């Protein structure tokens, strides 16, 4: 043959030292040995926010203008950092302190990715939630009617993701930014209809 060979070797996590003895079958006294080191690292980098391990945070309106976090890798140097697939300054060690300006983030999902020298990667997700407003177009305040059901219509402006709108205990239908539904009036005389808009991140707006 051409002298090439293959042999599988089971590696343990961390430093592995492999010794490869070679012997000339025509001259058993002639021997050589090759020793080399392979590091097996399967541990991902870790993001710390407020000194706690995190993989996601949610930023609502009115929060701080910047956020500080740390990315650390206990087993390998960091090799690259990127925000929304845009490269950040290359790291120089296995721990980096980062300051992210909130104004530079896009509305919705932002991904901060760290990759170490072994190719392990970790993603830190920043959900930036823009504000939304609740506008009622129907009915007008003080509306008079002889019907015991009234149409309720309006729209949601801004926000991110799904926003649920209810009138009383009834969920109203959504069509993109608009919502509508027919709401029963519980009694003769003055009725107050409470309309509530709630997003998936805990923000709620109410109008009567």
What descriptors fit this protein?
208 residues; mainly beta; five-stranded mixed beta sheet; four-stranded antiparallel beta sheet; 19 strands
Characterization of the model:
The chain is elongated. It has 208 residues and is mainly β. 11% of the residues are buried. The termini are far apart. A hairpin with a 2-residue loop joins β3 (46-49) and β4 (52-53). Helices cover 0% and strands 56% of the residues. The mean pLDDT is 85. The protein has strands at residues 14-24, 27-40, 46-49, 52-53, 56-59, 66-72, 78-83, 86-87, 95-101, 108-116, 121-128, 132-138, 149-158, 163-167, 170-171, 173-175, 178-184, 195-199, 204-207.
What's the quick description here?
With 208 residues, this protein is an all-beta fold. It has strands at residues 14-24, 27-40, 46-49, 52-53, 56-59, 66-72, 78-83, 86-87, 95-101, 108-116, 121-128, 132-138, 149-158, 163-167, 170-171, 173-175, 178-184, 195-199, 204-207. Helices cover 0% and strands 56% of the residues.
- Beta-strand portion reads over 45%
- Uncertain residue segments: none
Shape: elongated
The quaternary state of the protein chains shown equals single chain
Spatial strand arrangement across the major sheet? 5-11-10-7-8
Question: Mean pLDDT, nearest integer?
Answer: 85
Largest sheet report: 5 strands, mixed
Number of strands: 19
Instruction: Give the class from helix and strand content and strand pairing.
Output: mainly beta
Tell me the number of helical segments per DSSP (H or I, 4 or more residues long): 0
Draw up the topology in text.
Layout: E1 14-24, E2 27-40, E3 46-49, E4 52-53, E5 56-59, E6 66-72, E7 78-83, E8 86-87, E9 95-101, E10 108-116, E11 121-128, E12 132-138, E13 149-158, E14 163-167, E15 170-171, E16 173-175, E17 178-184, E18 195-199, E19 204-207
Parallel strand pairs: 5-11
Antiparallel strand pairs: 1-2, 3-4, 3-6, 6-9, 7-8, 7-10, 10-11, 12-13, 13-17, 14-15, 14-18, 16-17, 18-19
